[in-house]
Amino acid sequence: MPDVAATIRADARNRLIKRVVLDTSIAAAVVIGMGVMRGVYSNELMLFNFVVFLALAQGLNIIYGFTGYLPFGYVGFYGAGAYGFSLVVMHLHAPALVGMAAAAAAALVLAVILLPLLRLSGAYFAIASMAAAQAVYEIIANPGLEDITKGPYGVSLSDVFAPAFSYYTALAILGATLLLVVWLRNSRFGMSLQAIRDDSVSAAMSGVSVVRGRTIAWLLSALVAGLVGGVFAWHISVFYPDTAFDLSVSIFSTVFLLFGGATTLCGPLLGVFILYGIYNVIGIAVPQYFQFTYGALIVLLVLFLPNGLVSLLTNRGIRVP
After folding, report:
1. For 76, which of 11, 229, 244, 282 is 20 to 30 Å away at the CA?
2. d(CA 299, CA 312)
3. Cβ–Cβ < 8 Å for 218, 111
4. Buried (b) or exposed (e) across 94-125, using 16+ Cβ within 10 A?
5. Could you tell me where the DSSP H helices lie in 141-209?
6. What is the pTM assigned to this prediction?
C-alpha cells in the first residue's frame, strides 16, 4: 500500500517549491529590470524614486499586509535612517557602507522605542505612529541641535556622493526586501502573522506568540524603511528635515500598497508601477489634471476593488504571487 501521508507531504512540498521559485523569479526580474533601466533611461532620479517606493511599499506590506497594522508615521523610520546615515558620515567621516549600518541601527532603535504603540490598534495605532514621526522630526529640526543634526538648515554629504553606487545599493535593498516578503508568504512564520492579522485571539489560543510575531514584523518593516532612508541620504547627498520626514512618503507608500493589494508580492509592485508611473506622466506633463485623475482612480478602487487590483484574479480563484 502506498504511503498516503508521505504522498500528500511530497505534493505539498513540490507546490511550495514551485511557489517559491515563481515568487523569487518575479523578484529577480524586477531588480534586474530596474538595473537595466538605469543604462537605457536618462532620468536616474525618477528611476531611483521608483526603487525607493518599490522597497517602501513592500516594507509597509510586512507590517500591514501580514499583521494588519497600518502606520501612517512609517516615514519616521525612513527619516531616522536618513539621519542615522548622515550623522555618522558628517561627524565620524565614516564610509557610506558604515553609514548604511548606522541607518539600519537608527531605525531599529526607534522601532524598539515605539514598541508600546503595538498595544493600540486600528486608527489609534495609525494616528499614534504619525504623531511619533512628527515628534522625531521636531527633534531633528530643532535649531538648538544645529551642531549635531544641522537643525532645519539641511545636511550636505558631498564627500560620499556616488549616484551609481548608491543606486545599485538601493537595488540590493529592494532585492532583499522582496526576498523577505517571498519568505513571509511561504513560511510558517508568515502564516502565523496572517493568523494574527485575521484573529489574534484565535491565533494565541492555537499556540501562536502574538506579541513576538507583531514585534518581529514591526522591526523588519522598520529596518527596510531605515535602509531606504539611508540610501536616499546617500544618493541625494543634500536634503532637509522636511524632505526626510515628508508625510507624503507614508501616504504614497500606503496608497501604492493598497492600490495593488496587500499580503502579495505583486500587488505593491503593480501599485508603484501604475500609480507612480501616472504621477510622472500626468503630474509633470499636465499637472492640472493630475489630482483629478489620481483621486478618481483611488475612489474607484476603494468602491469596486477594496482588496486591490490583485483581487481581480484572487476573486476568481487564481493565486497571485
Report:
1. 282
2. 16
3. yes
4. bebeebbebbbbbbbebbeebeebbeeeeeeb
5. 146-149, 163-186, 188-198, 200-205
6. 0.94
